[in-house]
Amino acid sequence: MAENEEKAKAQNRCPDNSAFKQQRLPAWSPSLTAETVLPFFYLLGIACVLLGVLLQITMQNTQEIKVDYTNAESCDMCFETRKYKVNASRECHCSITFSLKERLEGDVFFYYGLVNFHQNLRRYMDSRDDAQLLGRIKKLKNPSVYCGPNFQYANGTPIAPCGAIANSMFNDSFALFFHPLVDRPLRVPLFRKGIAWYTDKNIKFHNPYVPNESLPQVFQATAKPLYWQKPVYELDPNDSTNNGFINEDLIVWMREAAFPNFKKLYGILDRQSSKMFEQGLPAGNYSVSISYNFPVQYFRGRKQVVLSTVSWFGGQNHFLPIAYLVTGCVTVLVAVVLTVVYIKFGKKGLKMED
Amino acid sequence: MIGSVFYFSISPEEERKVRANDREYNEKFQYANNCIMTSKYNIITFLPVNLFEQFQEVANTYFLFLLILQLIPQISSLSWFTTIVPLVLVLSITAVKDATDDYFRHKSDNQVNNRQSQVLINGTLQNEKWMNVRVGDIIRLENNQFVAADLLLLSSSEPHGLCYIETAELDGETNMKVRQSLPVTSELGDPNSLAQFDGEVICEPPNNKLDRFCGTLYWRENKYGLSNQNMLLRGCVLRNTESCYGLVIFAGPDTKLMQNSGRTKFKRTSIDRLMNTLVLWIFGFLVCMGVILAIGNAVWEKEVGFLFQSYLPWDPPVDNFLFSAFLAFWSYVIILNTVVPISLYVSVEVIRLGHSYFINWDRRMFCQRRNTPAEARTTTLNEELGQVEYIFSDKTGTLTQNIMTFNKCSINGHAYGEWEMSRAQRLDFSFNPLADRDFCFYDQNLLDSVKLGEPAVHEFFRLLSLCHTVMSEEKSEGELMYKAQSPDEGALVTAARNFGFVFRSRTPSTVTVQELGRSVTYALLAILDFNNIRKRMSVIVRNPEGKIRLYCKGADTLLFERLHPCNHDLMNVTSDHLNEYAADGLRTLVLAYRDLSEQQWEDWAERRRSAERAADYREDRLAAAYEEIEQDMMLLGATAIEDKLQEGVPETIAILSLANIKIWVLTGDKQETAVNIGYSCKMLTDDMSEVFIINGHTVQRVREELSGEQGGWHPQQEEKPQQGSPPAPALPSLLDSISGEYALVISGHSLAHALEADMEREFLDTACACKAVICCRVTPLQKALVVELVKKHKKAVTLAIGDGANDVSMIKTAHIGVGISGQEGIQAVLASDYSFSQFRFLQRLLLVHGRWSYLRMCRFLCYFFYKNFAFTMVHFWFGFFCGFSAQTVYDQYFITLYNIVYTSLPVLAMGIFDQDVPEQRSLEYPKLYEPGQLNLLFNKREFFICIAQGIYTSVVLFCVPYGVLSQATRNDGIPLADYQTFAVTVATSLVIVVSVQIALDTGYWTAINHFFVWGSLGAYFTILFAMHSNILFSIFPNQFHFFGSAQNTLIQPVVWLTIALATVVCIVPVLAFRFLKLDLKPQLSDTVGLSVF
């Protein structure tokens, strides 16, 4: 018995003749030959150049106007007012003007921009509670400690929405006016909804829901963030469905910017409501009336208003087409150099004879 | 004996006292019992002990430290699981491996401990488990049983207290050995008398020397010396012996078997050492980056963060920017820890294991005849096989087959065995019914001389049939089987057998020989056994007529010194014959005898007895006694045995030397034999300018010979004083430049001087300048010293190959030890790192497996460091934009999975399967081996290139998305500059770029590579979408807050344009450089590889 086993074992000692064990698996061995590399470089370079040109042409159809209003025109006064914390609750209104030399064709987007505001600090970004924003009742009353010092007041009242991000929410509001040459100023209609990601608006952010209770009642035991003037359920006085955690300005603000200089969408031109704006914003003079609440001098920041149109690949973006053009040209140049080197100095095959 | 009570102490045992049948007395010494435990853990201790062991690895401790850092909320820049998941994975892979190993050890321990043995307790034999056997017990062994502990043989069922054992498990030798009990105890044959036995043994403490034992038995007021001949060691098997009794001297862990199973010295490869250095550098780099970022944080917090406090107040313990910077430093250490990848060591082990399996599986290294496949016994040295520069080879059994054939002989000045090939006719031994049919001899003259009854010829073969240690086995009448310890002896006894002097059987005191059909029994008076120093063996026998004669066979140099002066002329003739034989590469032995008078014998026997009884220096005294009697001998003649070269040896040596590998032969043979083998295996050729032979016996002479040779090359050298001063630094390079023309042969006694501290450099320089080096007549220790010398001074990878016990020290000393699984036992194999059965497999092991392993490991390491730098350094650049706040660029799950899921398998597949040129090409072009020797593929320079490439990639991966996304908006107006979009874009670009890079690095795309590369990309996107899915978010909103980013980001054309741009910018320069390198400085492997297609 044992002997038979031993014999079988002894016979089996020769390794299997499988392609895997003998390292002879069928395989493709690519190599960098001139026949493959040089055409690849040319094609790649040309493709990049063409793409760059295409992007450049597309981009020329988009426009962008950027106006800094931190202390421009009448906002200078508000800027001074906001320097002091004691004036925090004082309202301040101002307006700035600008003119469009050409019409802004098609959909026009209205942004506010902030300079030198760091939404990307680690502790800042951690300071939020997505469960609370999702409308979990338990979290509403008992927000996560990640919200840091902004999760409850000293007396234990929980803050909704909690955290440094919500607390620092941008709270200037804007009204855009068109000044026709003959007529009195006309308020440009802006959609204030549809400015956030669909998934954010519909899934990520929910108001807490308690049967038979209105929004203010649900939020009753909570307090508004320290710097806010209005509680979260009164953010939009005009549209009751745009209040609470699903307020789109809040949602937009809660999506943190990756870099300290950023713009966020404020509104979209409503082209249907008025014939004047059907084709976009006509050329002419405009003013923006601002409810100036957000102090920026503490952190040496700037505030901007940005108007922009988009193409199929988005808004104005100088970097991408230029980068493609440069990359394409360099690649072609490299290809030429490689070709010259290959023809003049290539040593292929010499070594084989050694 | 009263003082023995004080032996309780824990201090190391100085001597062992064992009293038979007295457990109470023996227990006082607390000797280990017979329970062995080779396992390391049990169920309860496994976790703590195994973890403790694993955390002794620096890398693991480092990651534990990181984990602790991450648990501090002020520092924690990453969730704890980003570290713990890989750490747990790595720890559990190792733990599972350890646990399986230990499980099997437990199983075998249990099996061994529960073996039954018969123990004499209270006068009766009782069955006991092995583990319950104590020191001092008397146990009974039966045929074919394993010996349970180290026993002193008391008595046996066979006459004279003899018993036979097989020691295969102990030293690998399969021939039987004889053990004999002391005459006084051999009468104790039954349990009753044994139960009365109360002798006390005092002996050496436990040690690992298998071949010696020193002790004394005190019994009935008498002292009896004990030696290894009286011992049965644990692990042996009792053979051809019905039963025997033994007294347990050493049990369990104290037995010689267990004492020998100590861990061998752990070998590390040069890549290992380099890797450790690099990891240290990376640590330094990590700290530097941490410091830079911490300074950045200090400046930023002072200038900006301080003002930003209204929106983001500093956390309570932080009250100034310096403290904040301090915390930022640790936070960044956590984030940037991925530059030191935890999976590096595990991946390296996996790759090496794969390569080891390929060696085990290689059919071309499988020997059909011996049914032995090659075996990688160590799995951690594979890539070093691709860097070998020096091979130290044994000759017998390694270069040669170690199958001995009796080829020629010289009897009384007459040479036999010369024949012409054309007329060769095998001798007919049919007159002798006991002849071995496989034996061939062609010289009719010798047979005629035997038949004519020439006394010298008869005496010659009589000696051969008497003077040996061969055991015979006669299963049926006339079917003789010889079991010889060395093949030489077997060949000689077989030759005698065929010429009519048939050794039939032996007992401890007799040898029976069938002399030309007449059975003669000689009384065997003494065996003066063989050892490496004596290099001869003798027997003293009394023939039936009562004449006492000493027969001796041994090495010529030693025997010639001990001949009677009247042999002078015969000696000269024989010496000439010997030189001829040696020139043919034959192994020679000289035979001589001496007649002893009864008186001489009695005197000497007495001296020997007293030497045997001596308590100290017993071996030296015995050797002196032997020396005394082996004098004034009469020369009979000499034998020449042929040891055939193994198949393919000259070709292998030729190919290896083409691959710039220097081969040194270290052999115990005599110079002429060694030189001759050198010629026959093409190490030495007639084209060589000169073969230097160093044979001096004195320091001065050796020095002169050495410098003489150097002088031969450089006349100016002679003017330089060579005495004691180290050679001028320019010398080695000068010598190197003229290599290839010379060969060096040095003998053992000269080597002893050449290896002395003041001459070793000179010797080494000379030897290294020679194309071939042959050291003959070297001892095992000298073999190791030569290897050590080259290792110390040359910084080259050395490989030692051998098959016998005398090669073990050399195999253990060299970077890589290769054992030939041949006939001389398996000690060499047991000590080796790789083993196979044919020398010619060495070329495949080095040029194919070694070369590939090195190549794969280097490519793997380059890519591994590259991918981790590309991954990690993005955080560094982002630090300049996020106020040095230690915000990560990626989602934490991406950080967790990047190294263990997204990028691990393609590079592993490359590390295991990659091939640059097909295997037959690496044998056709041995020069392909050179990059490994010169360490070209992965060194500090290559490392920096990889790092630079990684950093370049990280810059591109950060800047391109930054440039594009910071201004871009989607086509529905929503800005793309949010953090999560940026994170997804950078992560996706990174995965694509490193995948393209591995695709470029992979030279051999098997289906597995395809599967892993595409599978990893697929896994990335699948996991990305899963992690950003609704389901996970709705369960853990705070953990999976990246919800929706993948969908929203990856449908944007701008994002894909960004990813494509980043990929092109990363890859184009790499491709261009590679093409240029290929074009302007093609490596041999490139051209060879290309010519295939």
UniProtKB/TrEMBL annotation, chain A:
Location (main, coarse): membrane
Keyword annotations of the record: Membrane, Transmembrane, Transmembrane helix
Record has Coiled coil as a keyword: no
One Pfam family matching this protein: CDC50
Entry's Gene Ontology BP terms: phospholipid translocation
GO cellular component: endoplasmic reticulum; Golgi apparatus; plasma membrane
Compartment list: Membrane
Transmembrane region(s): 37-57, 319-343
Statement: the UniProt record of this protein carries the keyword Repeat: no
Family: Belongs to the CDC50/LEM3 family.
Official protein name in the record: Cell cycle control protein
Organism name: Paramormyrops kingsleyae
TrEMBL record, chain B:
SUPFAM superfamilies given in the database record: Calcium ATPase, transduction domain A (SSF81653), Calcium ATPase, transmembrane domain M (SSF81665), HAD-like (SSF56784), Metal cation-transporting ATPase, ATP-binding domain N (SSF81660)
Listed InterPro entries: ATPase_P-typ_cyto_dom_N, ATPase_P-typ_P_site, ATPase_P-typ_TM_dom_sf, ATPase_P-typ_transduc_dom_A_sf, HAD-like_sf, HAD_sf, P-type_ATPase_IV, P-type_ATPase_N
EC number(s) on file: 7.6.2.1
Cofactor dependence: Mg(2+)
Residue numbers binding Mg(2+): D394, T396, D803, D807
One example of a Gene Ontology biological process annotation: phospholipid translocation
Transmembrane segment boundaries: 78-96, 278-300, 320-346, 860-881, 893-913, 943-964, 979-1000, 1012-1035, 1055-1076
GO cellular component: plasma membrane; trans-Golgi network
Hydrolase listed as a keyword: no
Catalytic activity: ATP + H2O + phospholipidSide 1 = ADP + phosphate + phospholipidSide 2
Top EC class for this record: translocase
Domain P-type ATPase N-terminal residue range list: 18-84
Residues the record lists as binding ATP: D394, K395, T396, E489, F530, K553, R587, T667, G668, D669, R777, K783, N806, D807
Keywords linked to the UniProt accession: ATP-binding, Lipid transport, Magnesium, Membrane, Metal-binding, Nucleotide-binding, Translocase, Transmembrane, Transmembrane helix, Transport
Pfam family, one: PhoLip_ATPase_C
Family recorded in the similarity comment: Belongs to the cation transport ATPase (P-type) (TC 3.A.3) family. Type IV subfamily.
Protein name: Phospholipid-transporting ATPase
Naturally occurring in which organism (per UniProt): Paramormyrops kingsleyae
